[in-house]
Design brief:
The complex is a heterodimer of chains A (364) and B (69). With 364 residues, chain A is of the alpha/beta class. Chain A has 14 helices and 11 strands. In chain A, strands 2-1-7-8-9 form a 5-stranded parallel beta sheet. A 4-stranded parallel beta sheet of chain A has the order 4-3-5-6, with helices on both faces. In chain A, helix 1 packs parallel to helix 10 and helix 2 runs parallel beside helix 14. Chain B is α+β, with helices and mostly antiparallel strands and 69 residues long. The chains are: A alpha/beta (364), B alpha+beta (69). Chains A and B meet through helix 1, helix 5, helix 6, helix 8 and helix 10 of A and strand 4, strand 5 and helix 1 of B.
Chain lengths: 364, 69
């Protein structure tokens, strides 16, 4: 396939690996966080860790939207699904994420109405075809997903759809990267920045990382040669001690990003504080619907009483939060492969196929 | 979530385009992009084309990789 096969050339991958192994970094502790879950998956899928120096640690970051959905959000989604004549529409990988007592999948088996959607446009379709049902779409994702939801909301308003509502858990990546940079325990050497979030926000969005925190970062694509070149660029930047924002994925990512998409996000959403699983509340890291779209905001139209959802018993032994922060590897959690597995997940990192625990379970 | 498969634009129909990869053709929304033409490659996410792929930049990246190796 064009633009895929060229970036999977084994001979060149091997050569980049040799170049990285030859760099004078053997005595340094190099800790690189790959922010995006799809990068984590690619590292294992293509066996890239075996091609990189043993002293390079790769830490999975919080860039898996399903994994960072808060328990409270899932609890509320379940509560909506249980309401009369209501259907919850969701991306499929949200189904199995555990809330405090249950998951959407379990509730679906018990009679709650839950349908899966590949795109927010599917939720529009479903609403048109089921005018008597109240449809609640779970808007989950990062900057890549936000403009797709924005366009769907604009369309819903144009069509004057009365039965479609959105429940936003949309999140922003740069604020959470800033939070991780402030955490002294992490001592990150560099970030491998997410390819498709960057396609929207542009590589300039990361300028604060070298400027304020003095470490390099590189936007990289998802093919093995992309990731290897990204790591090579980061390693060279560490040696030169001149941290900057690098863009390996320039075929898709520009400095300014997709301005049309950014305009759509701004038209429909405002930034708000958001709860991240394991990381807590992060200031200005979420998106909620602007007042002009309040008629489509399920939290405005049918708010749920909050005290019911105070999380009393977060799955105590589950260490998803520490995994998401990069403080431990998935296999350092006591539940890993003992009580927690993809078939019976305790935490969200074991649910999504790009969750760090699930990737480790499958490959490590 | 972020499957980055570049898909080739076959036909443009208003706000949507038929795009193809490995003989699989599907309709995606293209409202986030401007100036798309048949033959362009786009990155698709959740039913929307989120960015156009720049073939010259792709060549440049491959050339740089060949240079460092």
């Amino acid at each position: 396939m064009k633009y895929i096969d060229e970036f999977r050339n084994q001979r060149l991958i091997k050569k980049i690996s040799e170049r990285i192994l030859a760099l004078p970094l053997a005595r340094r502790r190099v800790r690189i966080m790959e922010v995006c879950g799809t990068h984590t998956q690619a590292f294992f899928r293509f066996g890239l860790k075996d091609l990189l120096p043993g002293n390079f640690e790769f830490i999975s970051g919080p860039g898996c939207p399903v994994c960072v959905s808060s328990q409270e959000y899932i609890d509320k989604a379940i509560a909506y699904a249980q309401q009369k004549d209501t259907v919850v529409a969701t991306f499929a990988d949200m189904l199995r994420v555990p809330g405090t007592h249950s998951s959407l999948e379990k509730e679906k088996a018990r009679s709650a109405r839950v349908v899966t959607a590949y795109s927010a446009l599917d939720a529009l379709d479903f609403s048109r075809k089921n005018p008597r049902k109240r449809v609640v779409f779970l808007a989950v994702g990062f900057e890549t997903t936000a403009p797709t939801i924005a366009l769907s909301l604009i369309r819903a308003r144009q069509e004057k759809l009365k039965n479609l509502f959105f429940f936003s858990s949309l999140k922003l990546i740069p604020p959470v990267m800033r939070l991780l940079l402030k955490d002294q325990r992490l001592r990150l050497s560099a970030f491998l920045c997410p390819g498709h979030v960057s396609a929207i926000i542009g590589s300039k969005a990361y300028d604060f990382i070298p400027r304020v925190y003095g470490i390099p970062c590189c936007v990289a694509g998802f093919e093995p040669m992309d990731i290897m070149e990204g790591v090579y660029s980061i390693a060279r930047s560490i040696i030169r001690r001149k941290p900057s924002v690098m863009n390996q994925y320039s075929r898709v990512v520009t400095g300014a990003g997709n301005r049309k998409a950014l305009g759509l996000i701004d038209e429909v959403f405002k930034t708000t504080d958001a709860a991240w699983r394991g990381l807590g509340r992060v200031a200005s890291s979420g998106l909620s619907l602007r007042d002009a779209f309040a008629a489509f905001d399920i939290e405005k139209v049918a708010p749920l009483k909050l005290q019911r959802f105070v999380v009393k018993h977060p799955a105590a032994a589950c260490r998803c939060g520490d995994v998401l922060k990069g403080l431990i590897r998935p296999d350092e959690c006591a539940l890993f492969k003992t009580r927690c597995s993809p078939a019976s997940p305790w935490g969200p990192c074991m649910v999504s196929s790009e969750g760090a625990c699930s990737v480790y379970y499958a490959y490590a | 979530m972020c499957l980055g498969i570049p898909m080739k634009v076959k036909r443009i129909r208003g706000e949507f385009a038929d795009v193809e990869s490995a003989r699989l053709v599907r309709a995606v929304n293209i409202q986030m992009l401007s100036g798309l033409e048949p033959g362009d490659y786009v990155i698709v996410h959740a039913g929307f084309a989120i960015q156009k792929l720049d073939p010259r930049k792709a060549e440049e990246t491959l050339r740089l990789i060949r240079e460092i190796t």
